[in-house]
Every structure is written in C-alpha cells, then in structure tokens.
Amino acid sequence: MKGRIERPLDIVAIDDEPLALARLALLVGDIPGTRLIGSSGDPDAALAFIAERQPDIVLLDIEMPGTNGLELATKLLHMEGYRPFVIFVTAFEQHAVTAFQAQAIDYVLKPVTHARLEQAIARVGTLVQHQRRSAEARDYERRLEEMRISSEPPHDLRDREEIWAMRGSEFVRLRTGDIERAESERDYVHIHNAERAFLLRTTLGALHDRLGHDRYVRVRRSAIVRLDRISAVRNRGYGDIQILLRSGATVQVGRTYLKPLRQRLIGIGPAERLTLMNA
To answer: Model-level pTM greater than 0.70?
Structure first.
C-alpha cells in the first residue's frame, strides 16, 4: 500500500450484510499497514463504538435498515473533537454525489476488489500520515513551551512595582521590571527600558536601593544595569570595556568596577547564557 505508515490504520466496517462484512475483513487483512478493529451491521451501535475507539477509517455501506450510511456519515461529520475518514462501499452508483457532500474520501462500488479497496485506503493513509505528523509537531511545540516556562525563574514581585517618571513633558507610569539600566546626571537619573529613556528626579544610589542591589549592579560611578539583561562583556582594548545588553544598547564600564562586575556575573550561573568575551 502506498503511503504506508508505522502505526497501522485502524478500520471499522459497517454493512448489514454478513457476507459483505466477511469479504471486507478478508480484503483488509491482506492490505499491509491496516487492521480491522471492529465490524457491525447496526449503524447506531457502530456510532457508539466509533466514538469510543476512534478509528482512522470507516468502511460504510449506504442502503441499510434504520439509519442508512449517508445519515451515519453526517453524524460522524459533526462529532466533536474527532472525525474518521469515510469510504463508502456500496452497490449503488446513484448516491455518489450525496456521499461526497458528506465529505467521503472515496466511493467504492461492489463487488469490491482488493486493488480498488487498497487504492482507497492508500489515499486515506497519506492524509492520516499528514495528520499524525502535524499532531506530533504541535505536541513537540507544546512540550518545548512547557520546558521553557518551567525553566524560567519565578517572577520577582518587585518587577510589578511602578514608579512615576518624566517622558518629555508628561509623567508616566513605568514598571520597575522593565528598567534595564539607569545613568545619573546631576540631580536627575535617566532610566532606560528596551525602547526609550525616562527622567526621574532622584539620586542613582536611592534608585539602586529601590530596584535592589541583588538585581542591579553598578558598572561605573554614574551607571547601573540589570544583571539578567546583560548578554556580553566586551574588552575593546586599552581599558575600553563595554557591556552589551539584550536590547542592543551598550554601556561603558569603569575599570575599577570590572572585577566586582565579573564576580557578580559568575554568580548568576550558566542559565543566563552570558557570553564573557575577553573581559
């Protein structure tokens, strides 16, 4: 069978003629990569079985007493969270248009030959393979996201605190968790997040105390940076040391602050993925 996949295709056959069911069982048994997990002459009982076992394929007759195959296919079409692929197996040509309106994958006329049934099942095999790979990819992405979330450090409640700072001619709220660096200038401090700068009338020491010495480190007399926003420390030669932040900004490091800075960075550990380059 073309499009063969590792896990067999589960198949359920529904026909009110016992001989037809026996014929389908023999044919399916000779098609590699398939297994018949159930057969029934009662469409209503088969519906409950299909909902429980969730086969990949339903081989479905049309002319049956009670609920006919077209009605059952419509019910299968509206099952919540799951829908099998339907292949009609019937002796009547006139129902083909209605069958495909019920989103059947194929329409096989009786008497059924091995080659014709194998061809129909092969079409479904390709679709099921695509479905399973897509589901596996979604599951992989979900697991990666769960791993990412579980590996993140717990959120510091201090990051939710807010301060009022000037942006141009207006005062705005600024979350302390967004502050990546601050630089002092006379009686003011320029506060930077990843996008823009704000102005606050305070001292750098007072701001450092408020933000936390465990999270921010002084890199020169007039500047502090947040430790977990540092991506690299670069030695440009002749005492020119710079910090590269995740936002792409650079901050000059005073020579007397380099040693304590390196000690703080080493203390963070490998989880922060810091790249220390010749510092």
So the answer is: no
